[in-house]
Amino acid sequence: MKHGVLALAMVGALAACATTTSSTGRTQFVGAVSQAQLNQLGEQAFTEAKQKGPLSTDTRQNAYVRCVVDSLVRELPAQQRQIAWETAVFSQDEPNAFALPGGKVGVNSGLFSVARNQDQLAAVIAHEIGHVVENHHDERITRQMGAAGAVQLLGSLAGNYGQAAAQGGSVLAQTGFLLPGSRAQETEADIVGQRLMASAGYDPRGAVSLWQNMIAAGGNRPPQWLSTHPDPQSRIGELQARAEQLMPTFEQARAAGRRPSCG
């Protein structure tokens, strides 16, 4: 009976797949799982990440990240603002961050060595939130998991998570949620993230100086979480041009009283 239910669920999920358009005009193929299911997968993946840890107990770091996330979330569409966003800081040296469906944001403490002010930290977090609001996780599952993956994911959501994990690994492994996106997704997250940070009152030029810090810290080899993006110098040029275009947005946000003071 359970297998029959899962088969029907899989058929329904795959039938619901559709072509849509992102906010940047890019065509996307999404819909293998519902938003509620994506949120549940995000919750499970975030729980796994926290269990693996180690989590930072530094109250200042945690408050700093929470402040930046809250200020960015206030500028999201109403549906995303209604989510109870959760943050965690991990005691890991790699300069990394991620965001998951359902309003989950994780930041490695190593990121603070290159994101040296709130504008630079906001650039990273806004980029990661951009992946969520542009449905990149939905797109990844729909395009890459296929029918077998859909059965496994839907099985976990139907309360059979232990068996699914034993057969195919954790939710993190099944979805690849924490792997870099495609080059198109990474570029789109840059665009959306820079817009978001400017509208929240963060200087969009912080995205440029952040990447310059990344290069200084690690040479021309980008960290794993940005490995699918164009080469560093090309990226700096794109970010710089976009920052100049977004300065009026930033100035309007500041004039309207959106002046984050996170750290």
TrEMBL record:
Superkingdom in the source lineage: Bacteria
Q: Which residues form the signal peptide?
A: 1-18
GO BP terms, alphabetized: proteolysis involved in protein catabolic process
| Alphabetical UniProt keywords | Hydrolase, Metal-binding, Metalloprotease, Protease, Signal, Zinc
Record note on cofactor: Binds 1 zinc ion per subunit.
* Gene3D superfamilies registered for this protein in UniProt: Metalloproteases ('zincins'), catalytic domain
Q: Quote any Pfam family the record assigns.
A: Peptidase_M48
Q: Which cofactor does it need?
A: Zn(2+)
Q: Name one GO cellular component term.
A: membrane
Q: Which family does it belong to?
A: Belongs to the peptidase M48 family.
Listed name of the protein: M48 family peptidase
